[in-house]
Each structure stands twice: as C-alpha cells, then as structure tokens.
Fold this sequence. Notes:
four-stranded mixed sheet; 32% helix; alpha+beta; single chain
Amino acid sequence: MVADEDGTAVDFGAKSPYAHVVDSKHVERKFALDLLHREDVKAFVKLPSSFTVPTPFGKYDPDWAGMVELPDGGRYTGFETKGTTNTALLGGFQEPRTIAGQLDFTTVAERLGLTDLKYAVVTDMSDADGVLDDAISA
C-alpha cells in the first residue's frame, strides 16, 4: 500500500475511486503519488488485476487509467508502468502482452472514434508528460 514517509497510508480518495493504492513495485508508488499531486489529473485508478485484456500470449492487465484535463478538453489515458519503456527488455511474455494491450487500446479508440484515448508504457511522470505533450501538439 502506498504510504508517506511516516508509514501512514496515503488517501487517494479525492481523485480515485479507491482510497488506497496497492503498489507492487517502486515505480508504481512514485507514479501514484505524482498522479495525485498533478492539478491536470482529474481522476485516476490503479486498475484491479481482474481488469484484463485477452491476448494471444495470455491475459494482459494494464496498470493505470486516468483522465487528464488538457487545454482542448479531456484526455483519457491508459498507462503501463515498467522499469523501462523499451519493451524488448521486459522478458518473457511481458513484451508481447504489452504490445497487444497497446494495440487493443488503439483499436478501441479507432473503432469508437475516441480521439482522446491514449496508451503508453512509462517509467515515470516525465515519460507520461511526453505522451501528454504529444497529445497537446497533435
């Protein structure tokens, strides 16, 4: 569970349907806190492990979904937090599952005409900023 320096669980209820976020790696803890403290992030959720995308390589479960307020309106984004953005270094079936997940988000966006649905593999908020900056300039 994400906790502050004193070990007290951080309350994410102002922006998330869940008051607490369970993190499985350091990168998720930092990302959760960054999402909480950003003013342009209006809502987010650490997706439960039951939220899966079927792929030919097994079930894929993305980490985050969020709504970011951009100058031209909202942007709905799915984020996968990893130790690297180079999916070739992930090992095992993580790379093909992540790629299949990205294709799923892209297909849903295209078929439903959702120009503001994006997906990215990120290591931290600076990677996420790059994705959002690309969306603003598009």
